[in-house]
Task: inverse folding
């Protein structure tokens, strides 16, 4: 409804300070022309909406203007009571703060919504941990958080994937949790990089401050970074035939398959499949893990690799 959208615009401008027409259109899922019409309506109704021109322009409310529109719909209230990951709250050291805030929020809403809020707690639980998880610990986590909030440079020792340790001075911009794995997002000179926190062996907060880029959006950066990473991953496409006994569990092996396509069974009931892996090594290990339950059809070099690995396994067996 348009009335809801106008209220949403007011609250967005009040909370964000300034937003461009494009940003408002994306947030509200409408066209830029609709945003302009809504702004004209707000202005005509006496709301002090201002349009700043130029490169850093956008829509804003006059200073000191505040709206008292704080009413929340039932579904909006429910969304606030969905519990976040207990593990991530613990990692950030704010479990008790979150519990206290939840109780205060419950006390502030109308009594008629209390039971619905409690129902959300009892019926929706978010768990980001895996079944066989080895939690990644780091003694530097608290230092990283402090440096991010204080906008202070960090001197870190970082162990790369090849085992080499490098010393770096970075500008910490934010933390991202991918599942249960934490990453530090930081800039080095003009580049923004991702550091797996479990590989940061030491972190020291320096006395040097840095200026956080005004246009940096952590969520947008992470989404873009993830897409770029996925596109850059190598791909090993394999054609195999699967024993019917393993087809039901083929997708639950824990291996890093990108995707799997199953075709109609053959006369002997074996199932042709096309499976994509990140690397040839992962493909070979996967196939060997199922012993004689997988036939390799293509590519030829993978068939040879599996054969050589199988021979090496036989040589390791001591029959004496």
Result:
């Amino acid at each position: 409804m348009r009335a809801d959208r106008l209220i949403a615009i007011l609250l967005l401008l009040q909370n964000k300070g300034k937003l461009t027409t494009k940003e408002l259109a994306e947030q509200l899922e409408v066209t830029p022309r609709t945003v302009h019409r809504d702004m004209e309506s707000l202005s005509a109704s006496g709301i002090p909406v201002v349009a700043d021109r130029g490169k850093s322009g956008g829509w804003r409310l006059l200073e000191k203007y505040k709206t008292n529109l704080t009413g929340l719909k039932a579904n909006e209230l429910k969304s606030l009571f969905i519990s976040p990951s207990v593990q991530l709250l613990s990692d950030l050291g704010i479990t008790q703060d979150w519990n206290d805030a939840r109780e205060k929020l419950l006390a502030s809403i109308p009594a008629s919504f209390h039971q619905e809020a409690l129902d959300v707690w009892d019926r929706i639980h978010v768990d980001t941990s895996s079944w066989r998880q080895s939690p990644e610990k780091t003694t530097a986590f608290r230092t990283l958080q402090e440096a991010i909030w204080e906008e202070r440079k960090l001197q870190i020792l970082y162990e790369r994937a090849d085992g080499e340790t490098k010393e770096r001075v970075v500008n910490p911009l934010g933390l991202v949790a991918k599942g249960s794995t934490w990453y530090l997002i930081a800039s080095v000179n003009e580049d923004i990089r991702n550091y797996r926190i479990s590989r940061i062996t030491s972190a020291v907060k320096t006395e040097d401050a840095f200026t956080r880029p005004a246009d940096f959006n952590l969520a947008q950066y992470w989404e873009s970074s993830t897409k770029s990473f996925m596109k850059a991953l190598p791909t090993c496409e394999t054609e195999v035939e699967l024993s019917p006994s393993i087809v039901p569990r083929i997708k639950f092996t824990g291996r890093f398959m990108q995707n799997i396509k199953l075709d109609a069974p053959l006369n002997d009931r074996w199932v042709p499949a096309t499976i994509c892996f990140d690397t040839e090594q992962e493909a070979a290990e996967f196939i060997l893990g199922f012993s004689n339950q997988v036939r390799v059809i293509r590519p030829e070099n993978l068939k040879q690799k599996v054969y050589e690995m199988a021979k090496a396994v036989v040589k390791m067996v001591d029959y004496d």
